[in-house]
């Protein structure tokens, strides 16, 4: 019996995971993940080449059954990002699909291939594995900070279970739900909520492989989908399409629950979806370090523009610039949102300094600025740092991109900002002082340089060439003046 996934012990042939035509019912998932868990037991930590496929889901479940911590890797990570994550997390092995091609950076790792056929004579083997202690690391998820390389956020088994049970409480999520999504599987949203969530409830995940309005229509209208999870960019694209696509509008309107998170869903897109489909999108607010903090509840009032109320078991407070707690709910006073509770991360891997800095007497400082209204609903109004960009729902540190761009021979100086974008929320813009004014580098070359070293989603979508950067007396770039 698995403490994290009690449903793995069930005999029913209900599908656990559907990726395209591949359907893994619960007993089969228990067999294949159980067999792989047997091979993994005793290892320290493993990496998973987290393609948007069933191999990732099976590899992660197997590692959790074995009590081995998982480091999900973005399969599009560039050379520098991947080298950093591997050197920092030191996995014993990497779990991949049979056809995955690993870049040179990862080729030195012991490689285990995930398959879907249970080995001969193997029955469900999850029973022979001890449920490991709750405070043991379940996942190490890498997330960008304002400067420097990404940090590994260590998440315990307790934190994962607590957040999944808390959102289930807010959303009435049960084993009868079929969750549809197309999120990447190397972050909290797609992997923890989107894969481990349905498995903890004993429900079904239907993953689309890649996002498209057509795929969403089919999964919700024809394949039994009851819930959809997406980032605001996906809802923006659904809102654009639903105005002219009656089948999509009906499919969205028929879903039990549409949930948006990872960034703010603008009021305009909330309203367009409501008008086209009759459905309201529920917003929840989370973070890699805290997992989920607040949400609109299915049994509570709709509050578009807010991220709802604290989830069960999560303490939330607002703190002013002098570190004083803001009481009451006037809906106007802005403070930093801080959280406490069982779903908080344990530490930043190998970074005791950064871990200590992140807390204020047991409260985690999110860096998000918010207000609270009389009903206790929170509204996120911005971030403390202009150096953290949210683009397409991905958190991206400006400093990381600046460091890489500075190494390009055509760049003398650079500042990176996030500019408002109707589709991505924020668009990464690089303000570049070229090494040679008369021969600036090609925009495309700069984007490719960032993609190759970091990740494609961190590439600048726009480059603006300037003669100099505005600096204060200390020499620090004044980014607000660039706009
Ligand atoms: C483009 N591509 C390149 C490239 N330019 N590849 C290499 N070099 C270049 N210069 C490729 C990309 O890899 C991709 O390939 C394709 O072109 C399109 O890429 P894109 O332009 O980045 O896609 P885009 O349209 O912007 O994607 C939108 C999106 C995506 C919404 C689908 O942003 C997305 O999946 N976002 C989800 C982020 C997320 O899960 N965040 C959760 C964080 S957890 P290919 O092969 O893919 O076509 C969190 C906590 C919480 O925040 O609260 O949830
Ligand atoms: P990440 O570090 O990728 O986990 O991103 C966490 C950040 O995403 C939070 O600190 C918020 O800034 C942002 N975020 C997540 N959900 C929401 C939401 N519903 N509304 C506004 N911002 C959000």
Q: In CATH's first tier, which class of the domain at 388-482 applies?
A: Alpha Beta
Distance between the termini: 57 Å
Biggest beta sheet attributes: 9 strands, mixed
Can you tell me the residue ranges where pLDDT is under 50 for at least 5 consecutive residues?
Answer: none
**Into which percent range does the helicity of residues fall?**
25-40%
Individual helix count: 13
Mind explaining what this structure looks like?
With 483 residues, the protein is α/β, with parallel strands linked by helices. 29% of the residues lie in helices and 28% in strands. It contains 13 helices and 26 strands. It has helices at 26-40, 54-66, 79-89, 157-171, 188-201, 213-221, 232-242, 246-254, 267-277, 352-358, 398-406, 443-453, 479-482, and strands at 15-19, 22-25, 45-49, 69-73, 93-96, 110-113, 137-143, 151-156, 178-181, 204-207, 227-230, 257-260, 281-287, 291-295, 309-310, 315-319, 335-340, 347-348, 359-360, 363-372, 378-383, 388-391, 394-397, 411-421, 425-434, 462-465. Helix 1 (26-40) crosses helix 2 (54-66) and helix 4 (157-171) packs across helix 5 (188-201). The chain is globular and about 70 Å long. The termini are far apart.
């Amino acid at each position: 019996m698995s403490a994290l996934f009690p449903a793995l012990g069930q005999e029913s042939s209900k599908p656990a995971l559907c990726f395209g035509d591949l359907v893994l019912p619960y007993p089969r998932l228990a067999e294949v993940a159980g067999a792989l868990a047997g091979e993994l037991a005793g290892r320290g930590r493993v990496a998973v080449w987290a393609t948007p496929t069933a191999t990732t889901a099976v590899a992660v479940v197997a590692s959790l059954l074995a009590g081995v911590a998982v480091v999900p890797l973005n399969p599009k990570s560039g050379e520098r990002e991947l080298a950093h994550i591997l050197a920092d997390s030191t996995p014993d092995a990497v779990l991949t699909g049979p056809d995955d091609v690993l870049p040179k950076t990862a080729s030195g790792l012991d490689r285990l291939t995930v398959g879907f056929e249970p080995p001969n004579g193997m029955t469900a083997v999850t029973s022979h594995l001890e449920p490991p202690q709750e405070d043991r690391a379940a996942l190490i998820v890498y997330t960008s900070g304002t400067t420097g390389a990404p940090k590994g956020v260590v998440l315990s088994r307790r934190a994962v279970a607590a957040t999944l049970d808390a959102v289930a409480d807010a959303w009435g999520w049960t084993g009868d739900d079929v969750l549809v999504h197309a999120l990447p599987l190397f972050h909290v949203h797609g992997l923890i909520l989107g894969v481990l969530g349905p498995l903890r409830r004993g429900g079904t995940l239907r993953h689309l492989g890649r996002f498209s309005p057509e795929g969403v229509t089919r999964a919700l209208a024809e394949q039994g989908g009851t819930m959809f999870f997406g980032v605001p960019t996906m809802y923006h694209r659904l809102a654009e399409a639903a105005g002219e696509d009656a089948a999509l509008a009906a499919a969205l309107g028929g879903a039990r629950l549409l949930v948006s998170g990872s960034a703010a869903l603008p009021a305009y897109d909330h309203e367009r979806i409501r008008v086209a489909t009759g459905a309201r999108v529920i917003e929840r607010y989370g973070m890699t370090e805290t997992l989920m903090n607040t949400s609109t509840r299915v049994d509570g009032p709709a509050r578009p523009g807010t991220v709802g109320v604290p989830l069960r078991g999560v303490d939330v407070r607002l703190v002013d610039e002098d570190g004083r707690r803001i009481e009451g709910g006037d809906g106007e006073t802005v403070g930093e949102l801080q959280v406490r509770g069982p779903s908080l991360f344990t530490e930043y891997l190998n970074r005791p300094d950064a871990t200590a800095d992140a807390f204020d007497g047991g409260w985690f400082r999110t860096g998000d600025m918010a207000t609270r209204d009389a009903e206790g609903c929170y509204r996120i109004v911005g971030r403390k740092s202009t150096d953290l960009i949210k683009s397409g729902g991905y958190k991206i540190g400006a400093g990381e991109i600046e460091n890489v761009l500075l190494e390009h021979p055509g760049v003398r100086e650079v500042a990176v900002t996030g500019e408002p974008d109707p589709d991505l929320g924020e668009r990464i813009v690089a303000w570049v002082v070229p090494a040679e004014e008369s021969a600036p580098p090609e925009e495309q070359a700069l984007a490719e340089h960032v993609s190759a070293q970091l990740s494609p989603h961190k590439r600048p979508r726009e480059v603006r060439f300037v003669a100099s950067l505005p600096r204060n007396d200390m020499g620090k770039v004044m980014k607000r003046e660039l706009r």
